[in-house]
Amino acid sequence: MSIEIDRVNKRFRDFVAVDDVSLTFREGELTALLGPSGSGKTTLLRIIAGLEQPDTGRIRFHGEDTTDLHVSKRGVGFVFQHYALFKHMTVFQNVAYGLTVRPRATRPTKDEIKQKVMRLLELVQLDWTAHRYPHQLSGGQRQRIALARALAVEPKVLLLDEPFGALDAKVRAELRRWLRRLHDDIHVTSVFVTHDQEEALEVSDRVVVMNKGRVEQDGSPEEVYDHPANPFVYRFLGNVNLFEARVHQGSAHIGGIALPAPEYADQRNEHGHAYVRPHEIEVFARQEHADALPAKVELVSVVGPAVRLELHTDASDALVHAELPKHRYRALGLSQGSDAWIRPLHSRVFLPDERVLNG
Ligand SMILES: Nc1ncnc2c1ncn2[C@@H]1O[C@H](COP(=O)(O)OP(=O)(O)OP(=O)(O)O)[C@@H](O)[C@H]1O
């Protein structure tokens, strides 16, 4: 079931929560709505669900206009951050609930319900908890049961609002891999809200980056990470270094070096910024390349197999962050206070008014 959002707007009094958003979620895809707090992700999800009415614009499920259709008629399943399971019901009863409350004509038999619930519990790998009560489960297990419960009624669309938000980092990481595998098995069109960029990049087929009620970029995880459409997306998707640049005839000059910026072939002496990710900064102990900048190592932190360096260079107002494998760092023989050389391997240049000439 594809979902089409067509020029949707939503205000809460003076506040514009969703600002002229048009998007298509393709059938069977898992899409992350990613953005900072207050960017309108949840409001958009609630509009898709039918829990909120848009002021203007239409929602279509598989081409059919559902904008005025009641939430109960849309065939959506939900999982929220604090999706309270019914405390007085066992896991089995919780998952069976949506089926048992159906009108008699469409209600499956007891045996059918039993089979289905047990199949779902196996799918979320918690069949052994069927007779337990929610308080006898961990937070991560409860969210998996909430997902089984949402799937029991065979939703056409699955909507998840920060489903792992309340869990600790390790459980979150496990559950997101688990959700990915589950989605590969069941292929229900799913939209999932998160403000965690790593979660969005790891789990989803597609990422929609939102900011102030608008869509900043919509693409595959690789596209949004490797080719951010604008400085907002660049900053939001991970660490980035900013260098003041003079943009002139297809080059961005920072310090004494020139970086290629072919998209600005016609610009002359314009002021801009070159964005470079920490792992795209090459570090040397000596001046091995003519196009490297002199720097000084200010801080070294070892994070598992990687080493993060913070370096001072005259070409940047802030310390430059570089990240390299530990073996490479060791081979360089650098330490805090050492003189070093840095070279941006890949950069993306933006002019201050965020004009993007190469999309
Ligand atoms: N019912 C409401 N009444 C008034 N304002 C609301 C209502 N619902 C949401 N808002 C406002 O709309 C804005 C967008 O909220 P929304 O929950 O969609 O953002 P979000 O991106 O999901 O943020 P978060 O990650 O913090 O949940 C927020 O500033 C919020 O205060």
TrEMBL record:
| Molecular function GO terms recorded | ATP binding
Domain ABC transporter, residue spans: 3-237
Supply the alphabetized keyword list. ATP-binding, Cell membrane, Membrane, Nucleotide-binding, Sulfate transport, Translocase, Transport
Q: Which CDD domains match?
A: ABC_CysA_sulfate_importer (cd03296)
> Could you identify this protein by its name?
Sulfate ABC transporter ATP-binding protein
